[in-house]
Amino acid sequence: MSEFRIVALASGRGSNFAAILGACLERKLSARVVGLITNKSDAPALEIAKLSKVPTTIVDEKSFRKNGRWDRAAYEVELLKAIESYQPNLICLTGYMRILGKAIVAKYPEKIVNIHPSLLPSFRGLRAQQQALDAGVKWTGCTVHFVSGELDGGRILEQSVTRIEEGDTEETLSKRLLPIEHETYVRALKRLTSP
Q1: What pLDDT digit, counting tens, does each position of 142-195 carry?
Q2: How far is C-alpha 90 from the chain's CA centre?
Q3: What is the dihedral of CA 101, 140, 182, 127, to 10 degrees?
Q4: Domain hosting residue 155, numbered range
Q5: Catalytic residues
Q6: Residues facing residue 90 across a β-bridge
Q7: How does pLDDT run across 114-150, given as a tens digit for each residue?
Q8: pTM of the predicted model, to two decimals?
Q9: Is residue 158 within 8 Å of residue 188, measured between CB atoms?
Q10: How many independent structural domains does the chain possess?
Q11: CATH number for position 108
Q12: Cα(131)–Cα(134) distance, rounded to whole angstroms?
């Protein structure tokens, strides 16, 4: 059987990228991370990739600004080229802070996976933990889902739940949720990559 190839997209620290990479290296997943693509040249995830000798591609969003406007179409063309260069079986969004365009989503139907820090369909979009706190809910969690044309939409693969504690802030809740995200993402990928 041929190797199952994962490419990750990240914008920031890359903790979910590190969790997936670690699971592959420890053979908890029957897959290999073949590349990391980032939209920021200073993303800390790049250092994680470098230490593990994972090839990287930077499609720096700053390079696609003209007259103060972001040229999304040109950026998406370059991003798609970068993704295609790795010939992935699966694309994992690991803190990638851009919405993927229709052309990329259409090219890889149910091959792009994201993790979101809420129990979808509740609290879509940015600052999901703060949204949960503002709503006064007692439980929250994280969701691994396929990426569709809808923001934080797509078929749900895995969810994990955690209680919101008295006095929680966005920061404390986010910190407590992060290791749960890592476990949930790896669990979902195990289902997708198992022979």
Answers
A1: 999 999 989 999 999 999 999 999 999 999 999 999 999 999 999 999 999 987
A2: 11
A3: 50
A4: 5-193
A5: 116
A6: 6
A7: 999 999 999 999 999 999 999 999 999 999 999 998 9
A8: 0.95
A9: yes
A10: 1
A11: 3.40.50.170
A12: 5
pLDDT tens string 72-86:
999 999 999 999 999
Peptide bond connecting 117 to the previous residue in cis, omega within 30 degrees of 0: no
Name residues whose C-beta falls within 8 Å of residue 144's C-beta, 6 or more positions apart in sequence.
Answer: 113, 114, 115, 156, 157, 158, 159, 184, 185, 187, 188
HEC string for the chain: CCCCEEEEEECCCCHHHHHHHHHHHCCCCCCEEEEEEECCCCCCHHHHHHHCCCCEEECCHHHHEECCEECHHHHHHHHHHHHHHCCCCEEEECCCCCCCCHHHHHHCCCCEEEEECCCCCCCCCCCHHHHHHHHCCCEEEEEEEECCCCCCCCCEEEEEEEECCCCCCHHHHHHHHHHHHHHHHHHHHHHHHCC
How many CB atoms are closer than 10 A to CB 113?
A: 24
